[in-house]
Structure formats: C-alpha cells, structure tokens
Amino acid sequence: MLITTEGFVLRSRKYRETDGLLTIFTRKVGKINAVAKGAYRPKSGLLAGVQPFSYSEFVLYKGRSLYTINQCDVKEIFYPLREDLKKLSYAAYLAELTGAVTAEGQTNNRLFNLLGKTLYILKENDIEINPVVRAFEIKLMNYSGYRPHLAGCVHCANKQSTSWKFSAEQGGLLCSSCLNVDPSAIKVRNTTIKLAIYLLAKDMEEIKNLKISRYLNNELKNVLKRYILTYTNRYNFKSLEIAEKL
C-alpha cells in the first residue's frame, strides 16, 4: 500500500552502505521509521530529503516492520538554520523532543503544525530564541496530553497562595499549604507562572519578538526541563546541551 504524506525528518542515520534509515514525523501516519534506499549515493535524488528536520512530501510503501521511501519531494531544508550553529542545535532539539513525546504510528496534527511553524520562525532574522523555545516546550507538552496545571494548586485547587512551587510529578503548581506533597518541587515566581500561561495561550508569531529577562527564562527553563524529563523518561537532550553552550 502506497501512502502520500507530508513529513519532517526527526532523525537520519546510515543503514548499510548507501541506504538511509529515517525517523519521520508525518501528518497522516504519525512517527514512523523508513528506509531511503540509495539515499547516500552520489547524486541521489533522496539525499536532500534525508537531512534532519527537512520537510518533504513522501510517497511511502508500508512493509512488515519498516516503511520504504518510494519518492521524496523536498519542500524545505532550512538552509538558514544550517548556517547558524546555535539555531541548528535548537532545531535539532525540537526534533529530538518531538521524537521523545510521540508514539510510533500515532498522529498529532497540532504538534505537527507547531513543529513546522517553529522551524520556519527559527530561520528568520532578529527573533528572540529563548521565548520561542520555551513556548515550543510548553505547547508540545500540552499537545501531548500533559498540559501543566497553572490555574491554582493542583492538589487542593486553592487559587491564592503566598508562594508557589511547581511539581513535575504532580503536574502543576503547589500552594504553600501543600508543599509536603512533593518535597522536590521547584520554587517558582508569579511572573514566571504568568509567562508560562502567556506562552500557552499565544500564537508563535506573537511570541517570536517577546523579550524576557535571563533570570525569567532560566527559571521557566528549569521548570519545563524537569517537567519534560519526568514525562518522557529521559535524562537529558544532547542537542539542548550543545545549544546552551553556544
């Protein structure tokens, strides 16, 4: 059976001598593994389409355990990202993160659209990378079914508190009366909570020029990192570590 679908390459590695083995996040059939036969041969028509996070329309044949790429019409390979090491590293992080939260064969159109829009925004000049990446992280968790509870205490539903902490294990905020529920919860300021709510609500186009302080970014980054690692069962994301060192 042949399937025609758009897709982003999340991961690409050599398979045998000249073939490529790709992990692709597609619109129609979700995340899949596919073989691109002869992709690494000189002058191969598939070579551009096997590059990480490139966006193409694929014609796929479904085999027993793997798909085979019969045809690949490349729509965008994001050259500007490949010329900027920091942006390249963040783009790789978006792909790595998407792969971590998606199950094989399960579609997620909202996440598919979010990944595409964010990659296109990242290649623009004069954008604010930190709020874009933070917005991607929190929206990704929301679209994956792990929307953090930020409207009050996740344990007692109290909406007023002298101070707040965020519990990754509980999935949201804890008020000052419920801190014993999770001793490892992270202290979080009201401004950080408001920023998280804003990023959840607004479109990426409204976020790309948002300026936030380094302290505010770091606090939200630490909260989201703990949250993401808890629900993806990961210890780290190598691409993010590289990006943050640049």
In words, what does this structure look like?
There is one protein chain. By secondary structure, the protein is an alpha+beta fold. The chain folds into two domains: 2-76, OB fold (Dihydrolipoamide Acetyltransferase, E2P); 79-148 and 182-245, de novo design (two linked rop proteins). It is 38% helix and 24% strand. It has eight helices and eight strands; from the N terminus they run βββββααααβββαααα. The protein has helices at 79-82, 85-101, 109-122, 129-143, 190-201, 204-207, 214-232, 238-245, and strands at 2-15, 19-26, 30-36, 55-62, 67-76, 164-167, 172-175, 186-188. A five-stranded mixed beta barrel has the order 1-2-3-5-4. 36% of the residues are buried. The mean pLDDT is 94.
Can you tell me the CATH class of the largest domain?
Mainly Alpha
Beta content comes to 15-25%
Structural class: alpha+beta
Q: Give unreliable regions as ranges.
A: none
The largest sheet, given as strand count, sense and whether it forms a barrel, is: 5 strands, mixed, barrel
CATH topology of the largest domain: de novo design (two linked rop proteins)
Mean pLDDT across residues: 94
